[in-house]
Design goal:
60% strand; 786 residues; Maltoporin, Chain A; 22-stranded antiparallel barrel; Immunoglobulin-like; mainly beta
């Protein structure tokens, strides 16, 4: 009679993590039950607990930065206690490289960590941003509509110019426009080990200021065994991907070498939105007794047909969701075949980690990025005077305008150094001192390739050229101190920016301009450990952010855009049980002089912005994951927010070019939905197999800051299905087959857009463009590991 009761009994395993030398507790250590893939972290007293465990054998592993990992086996048939005493490691780990710019397990800030397992599961060939789509407050979009080519992300309504992105602690945001173009690094995910996404101002980091979020990426780390791997994918709209990975494992106890080659092609869903993408990743490392030296060389080439203007709203509403205006030649329906964007980007990184003493470690990096490329486009009836070309007289007729093809080039260099010192005198204190100096040199020049009318200009006629230089210096210090059940957090950053660019002077002449900015970004917070597995936290942070290139070059000293200021208040609760993890985070982001999107794009698809005195974002983020039964789990996120602009003035122009002013007392910030939610229900019918039902809901968004329903994106709800199965045969370590079916119900939705309102006949006329996304489509994948 007792057998059913004993079979269903559930037990707990608890213990304490301490330092072998001092006996101090180690808060923030990671404890994992390996055969259940369950993890938790130790609290301020170094304690941990797993609950609701069935009887059986378990393998429990503990890891902590700068300490040797340890693993123990335990048979559980009652509530059990298992302590771990960790010894400081004499080998420096590569975690030090990114640890300086990351939030720790109990930091008083909102963040999400993605492991290599999480990344590999979703790495089917779509843009890098899709790996992050199920994290809180995130909206991802694709210009071509099928996830390949130009893709983009917004977190809490903040676009990539406000999202700080680093790879191994090195910034990859464009120094001038501050955007992030993962299309230049296709298939980067295949060389990534882990990712941390921080929402809000986050911790101090290098490069462009985090003004809405930061994404910290760590690439390939040490693998001791040799390997060879192939990843392939094929699917709708002619999408094909091939990836080859090779690694030597640890040679002679000191050296490793890793490499990757990737090739991808897609026709795209939108007309003439095809992509040809190539990338590579090479890495070599030396592991000494107290040091690690790693060299990374990686880069990519992209050719994408231009789809960055979207589809006219009227076309979408009339059923032509794929229509692309770019490259239009004439009324016969001809389009210019080489309406493309072409760009090469190559990265060189030298990373060095040194364990100076058992208490002090150093991490530094030298980096260089080389980028060059152009986009080519057909222009209808442009004025020759706009290109510095004198009108010509042919047969007594003055030719003042003509159709032409032009190329706009960008040729740039970005280089610098980053460093940090990490000091841990005890399990109570964690102190980091770090910083960086980076320099950017950009050359912008433009050529005319062809004109329909004879203009007497030479082939490849260069009609404009200008240069830009930007220096970026920052220094930061951060400390976490454990006082009983309380963690105290402090962070201070100083940042100086110098920028030289071609812009308008007070007489509206184009001359070289100089701007210097100094920013102080303090942060403070507190975390209180409520129980062994839960805590509450609160933090306040100040962040400052410089205007981008377009903001500067389109202004003069009289109307120079102001730097933006953010005061970010975060507060929340986190809990991690053996079968359940959850968090709730509240935020209030108060902006001063925020540069908000007007909703319009310039002629290369870049957003046009203007300063406003006051605006704010306030909301609640929820995330959780529950194991409903052994084979069934459910993960979900939800963000409810209000995002407001105060006293917004919009200037529109009538058919005569005269300005018409509109004033709005309080409206919604553009591209900021009030609700974003996601859900992933996964079921494992058999070992090594998974079926996942993935959902995403995004409420209505406005295309400008007027809260006008005539200039809005409708809400959408889209569902995907992901199937994975892994097995092995003799000679092959793993064979993984997968199928991703996107938008299984063929929802007709648009995830992004732009608007160009004007005044005609005394009334506002709206010209909206939507980025229509593809109906049901699929990607089948194959993984082979040797």
């Amino acid at each position: 009679m007792l057998l059913p009761v004993l079979a269903s009994a559930q037990f707990s395993v608890s213990g304490k993590i301490t330092d072998q030398q001092t006996g101090d507790p180690l808060p923030g250590a990671t404890i994992t039950i390996q055969n259940l893939a369950l993890s938790t972290v130790s609290n301020a007293g170094g304690k941990y607990v797993f609950k609701n465990l069935k009887s059986g054998n378990y393998t429990i592993a503990v890891s902590y930065l700068s300490y040797q990992p340890i693993t123990k086996s335990l048979y559980v048939d009652a509530n059990s206690s298992l302590d771990f005493i960790l010894t400081r490691s004499h080998k420096v780990t590569e975690e030090v490289t990114v640890n300086a710019t990351r939030a720790s397990a109990n930091s008083p800030t909102a963040f999400t960590n993605l492991s290599k397992k999480d990344i590999d599961k979703n790495n089917t060939g779509r843009g890098f941003e899709y790996l992050l789509e199920q994290t809180p407050s995130t909206v991802v979009t694709s210009n071509a509509g099928a996830g390949v080519g130009y893709t983009s992300i917004r977190i809490r309504g903040s676009d990539p110019t406000r999202i700080n992105v680093t790879v191994n602690g090195i910034p990859i945001n464009d120094a001038e426009d501050q955007g992030v173009y993962f299309v230049d690094l296709p298939d980067l995910a295949s060389s990534v080990d882990n990712i941390q996404v921080q929402r809000g101002a986050g911790t101090s980091t290098n490069g462009a200021g985090a003004f809405g979020a930061s994404i910290n990426i760590q690439t390939t780390t040490r693998r001791d065994s040799a390997y060879a791997e192939y990843n392939g994918a094929a699917g709708s709209y002619g999408t094909v991907k091939h990836t080859f990975n090779l690694g030597t494992g640890l040679l002679g106890g000191h050296f490793t070498f890793d490499g990757r080659l990737s090739n991808m092609y897609s026709d795209g869903y939108i007309e003439r939105s095809a992509s040809k993408l190539r990338s590579y990743f090479l890495s070599g490392a030396y592991y000494g007794k107290t040091s690690v030296v790693r060299v990374n060389i990686f880069g990519g080439y992209e050719q994408t047909h231009q789809a960055w203007d979207g589809v006219p709203q009227d076309s979408v509403l009339h059923g032509n969701r794929k229509y692309n205006e770019l490259g239009y030649i004439d009324a016969t329906g001809k389009y210019y075949p080489n309406q493309t964007d072409n760009y090469n980007q190559n990265y060189y990184q030298l990373l060095y980690n040194q364990q100076i003493s058992p208490l002090l470690s150093f991490s530094g990096a030298l980096h260089y990025t080389r980028g060059y490329g152009y986009y080519e486009e057909y222009r209808n009836d442009d004025n020759l005077s706009d290109y510095g070309v004198t009108p010509v007289i042919i047969g007594g007729v003055t030719v003042a305008s003509t159709d032409l093809v032009r190329r706009l080039w960008l040729d740039n260099d970005f280089y610098g150094a980053t460093y940090n010192f990490s000091y841990k005198p005890s399990g109570k204190l964690d102190f980091t001192l770090g910083g960086a100096y980076n320099e950017y040199k950009g050359r912008h020049y433009n050529n005319i390739e062809w004109t329909q009318q004879s203009t007497n200009i030479q082939p490849d006629y260069e009609y404009s050229r200008n240069t830009a230089k930007k220096t970026d210096f920052n220094l930061f210090a951060r400390a976490e101190y454990h006082l009983g059940d309380v963690l105290l957090y402090g962070d201070m950053q100083y940042r100086h920016i110098g920028y030289s660019f071609l812009g308008f002077d007070q007489n509206l002449n184009n001359v070289q301009q100089q701007v210097g900015l100094n920013f102080y970004n303090p942060k403070a917070g507190i975390t209180y450990q409520v129980t062994d597995n839960s805590n509450v936290y609160a933090s306040i942070a100040v962040a400052n952010h410089e205007p981008n290139r377009n903001d500067f070059v389109n202004s003069s000293p009289i109307s120079r855009p102001k730097a933006e200021n953010l005061k970010d208040l975060e507060f929340g609760y986190r809990t991690a049980q053996s079968n359940f993890t959850a968090g709730i985070n509240g935020f209030y982001m108060l902006y001063k002089n925020q540069l908000v999107l007007t909703g319009a794009l310039d002629d290369v698809g870049e957003a046009i912005r203007t300063n406003i005195a006051g605006s704010y974002r306030a909301g609640i983020e929820l995330n959780g994951k529950v194991r409903i039964a052994q084979p069934l789990t459910w993960a979900a996120t939800a963000t409810l927010s209000t995002n407001k602009v105060k006293n917004f003035n919009q200037v529109l122009f009538d058919e005569n070019g005269d300005p018409v002013n509109f004033h709005y007392a309080k409206t919604d910030i553009a591209y900021s939905p009030n609700f974003v939610g996601s859900s992933t229900v996964s079921y494992q019918p058999v070992r090594n197999a998974e079926i996942a039902f993935i959902s995403k809901y995004v409420s209505q968004q406005y295309l400008d800051n007027t809260s006008s329903n005539d200039r809005a994106l409708p809400h959408y709800f889209v569902n995907d299905v992901r199937l994975n199965y892994n097995f092995s045969i003799k000679g092959v370590k793993n064979i993984g087959i997968g199928l991703l079916v996107n938008n299984i119900f063929s929802a007709k939705y648009q995830s992004d857009g732009a608007t160009y309102p004007g005044v005609e006949g005394g009334k506002v006329a709206n010209y909206n463009y939507w980025f229509a996304q593809a109906p049901v489509n699929f990607l089948a994948s194959l993984n082979l590991k040797f």
